Amino acid sequence: MKSDINVLRIPIPTPTLWPYTTTNSYIIGNKEETLIIDTGYNQPITRETLQTALKKHELPIPKKILLTHGHKDHSPGVKQLLDWQIPTFIHPLEEPEIRRNVQIDNLHYLSDHEEISIGDESLIVLHLPGHSPGHLSFYLPSKKILLAGDNLIEKGTSWIGTPDGNMKDYFITLEKIKSLSLTMVGPGHGDWIHNPYEHIEYVLNRRKQREEQILHILKDNEPLLLHEITNKIYDGHIHPSNKVVAEKTTEAHLIKLIDERKVIQNRNAYSIYS
Fold it and tell me: Which InterPro entries is this protein grouped with (predicted)?
């Protein structure tokens, strides 16, 4: 009889967004079989970290690699594991980004609500776009654990920005995550989230507050360019290295507000819809 399935969080050092210096990989399985979710950056320490974890817990080489999305701090580490000769599974909408970041063969597609067998249990694939168009999260019903990828991070909020991100989709994704039965969430970065519903509400409220802030800024100062709006929101509040993603997140909010007919864009300037 097979032993119970365990879920291990393996932080892999990566050049990712401040304040994080690691990207989470997850090993799911038992002493008979395992699979791995996300593989960090394409550098030797990726392989070293994963091999050390497998050896420490006396686990076999994974049978599959599942990627939440194609961003370069989550997917290119696959290249460090090519000699394992195991298939990599993605959502088809992530293939262009993955192909840009790493050339790999043996790619296979996953679809929403598909079930992946691991031991005597099933891991459910959830297509939850917003951070990227084909972003996947993985739900283990037996333990009520969601491995969220970058849909959630331990501290703060994920950035949602062009060309990959869609803020409208992200709001829908957060509501879907909230509807799951959860005990904890494994985020893309940072430690386990043990208060999932409180955390999701925090992220939802943060995004709603940001939209209200943008609308107030435009009411008081319109018209404004994207970088002017971003400066009014973030100056003095974020690390300089995050300025580009802050601007992209502001732009994603503006695109959503334009779609909702709350904001208009005239050339490069934004104003309140009237």
Answer: Metallo-B-lactamas (IPR001279), RibonucZ/Hydroxyglut_hydro (IPR036866), Sec-metab_biosynth-thioest (IPR050662), WH-like_DNA-bd_sf (IPR036388)
